Amino acid sequence: MMKKNRLLGDRLVIGVAYVFIGLFALICLYPLILTLSVSFSSEQAIARNGYSIFPLSPSVDTYKYIFVNSGMKILKSYGVTIFVTVVGTAGALLITSMIAFSLSIKKLRYRNTLAFICNFTIIFSAGLIPWYIVSVNYYGLKNSILALILPSIFSVWNMFLLRTYFASVSPALYEAAEIDGANYFTIYVKVALPLSKTALLTVGLMYALQYWNDWWHALIFVNDRDLFPLQYYLYNILSNVNAISSGRIPSGASGNITLPAETVKMAITVITIGPIIFLFPYIQKYFVHGIMTGAVKE
Amino acid sequence: MNPVGKGFLYEIKKNRILYLMCVPALIILIMFSYIPFAGVWMAFTDFNVVDGIFGSKFVGLDNFKYFFSANSMGWKVTYNTLYINFFSLILGIIIPVSIAIFINEIRHKAYKKIAQSMMFFPYFISWVVVGAILYGIFSTDVGVANQILKFFGADPISWYSEPKYWKWIIILSSVWKWSGYSSIIYMAAMANFDASLYEAAKVDGASKLQQILHLTVPMLKPTIIVLSLLSIGRIFYGDFGMIYGIVGNNPVLVDEVTVIDTYVYQSMRTLGFSYSTAIGLFQSLMGLILITAANQSAKKINDGEGLF
Lengths: 298, 308
Hints:
The structure holds two protein chains of two kinds.
Chain A: H1 2-39, H2 43-49, H3 61-104, H4 111-123, H5 128-138, H6 156-168, H7 171-179, H8 184-195, H9 197-213, H10 216-221, H11 230-245, H12 251-255, H13 262-273, H14 275-295
Chain B: H1 8-14, H2 16-34, E1 45-46, H3 52-55, E2 57-58, H4 62-67, H5 74-105, H6 109-120, H7 127-138, H8 144-151, H9 166-191, H10 195-203, H11 208-233, H12 240-247, H13 254-257, H14 260-270, H15 273-301
Antiparallel strand pairs in B: 1-2
Helix pairs in contact in B: 5-9, 5-11, 6-9, 7-12, 11-15, 14-15
């Protein structure tokens, strides 16, 4: 009788596990499907029936409409985002991995001092305004593509993650290379980097995602429409919609703004997510692997 | 062995390649973190552009006093920041830990894999996209939430003009976005648990629930504590991108969801640089105190290993 109860209890726990995980997974993906299906619905059907998880009278008219009307603007934004992502990620990986490698070499005497210089910026910062004034008045980052790249090109967190990987490489390998006459830069390029591919990929993906999804640097630094990254382009469309749907913006002001149709908003959202939709199941695998190995200490 | 010969310059020269490799990162830190420290002086002045940062009139702590005076939003935004962060933190532990524990019980590999991919999706999208999705759920005429209300015969709600719901919409969005990602860290910790403990428990007749409550949860405790401490250390910081991405420039909702970070940005335009700098400094100081305390506690719990 006891045993029977226990088995029943175990089954219940397992059942709850299946239901909980299934439900949460659905909640996570549901909005994506909603967005996709609205973007492929016809505008009239959405106005009549509201948002729906199945495309209502399916059509690609919205996408055609967008590319005819604002195709150039979107392409430009795509260009800005891709440029920023590619250049930013490449630069960030180079800068981050070089210092991470150096700080992983135990015989470097000032490595703790340097690590502290990095750490301190996590613990204490001057705040938004001094940072903004210095960036605009002294570095001239207003309306510059560098404003979208430079401020986030080095993340101390990612550096420490990479350093953990580099530190796990056996020092004997480095010593052997040193005896063969290699200097530390050669060792970094030829030994350390190839041995840390998983870590570099994980950190590279983190940087790439950060650049792809970044819009607040654009909010702060960029007025020039030609420099709008994708996410900021979408933000501009949506923030007008939100403000007007609150009903408190004076009608005179809202009269000048034409609200994009529901399907247009969702189609632009899909375009903004872009390659991530197709890539995320593959990228996700590397992420899980990379974070798992990074989080587990030997 | 002359100690001078082994001094600073000698070390730099000997390992010059390694030190050179640190230079680009250090330049970025100096440019964007250290040089701005000088600007903190603005918090104690009445800044005007003509006289510059160091020529403007010194006013002592006036800007800080104003922040906490009755006619400023100081208390309100501090409350909002702490409220949103506190509940995000609690749910941000419970849900990822539950995910990790439950996913461990699932035997069907495909189910596990697909569910995990789906849960990871929110991590990949920007807050602006989250904002667009929330619009699809909460917009008055076509949104899904009102369709559901109508289905049950309730009156539709005009969500975007009702500030009282938005703290929780933001909290739940944040939990939704990070849970799949955070659960991986707990799963990594669980992968390291000693399997023989579970075998022994099974032999002793422990049920699944007992194994979870008396083995898994206690062994996860150190990880949970360290991650919570880290969040507590950042409890005075709001997520600027999250708040602005979700709420945008909606004037009605702003009052309820303005956190310190967004308040600094708004004040910059209306109340001036000095005042905004003072708020930023207040935030950094509170953060410094909390994060140092959190680090000390983490060291105690985690065998001398701190958060950083």
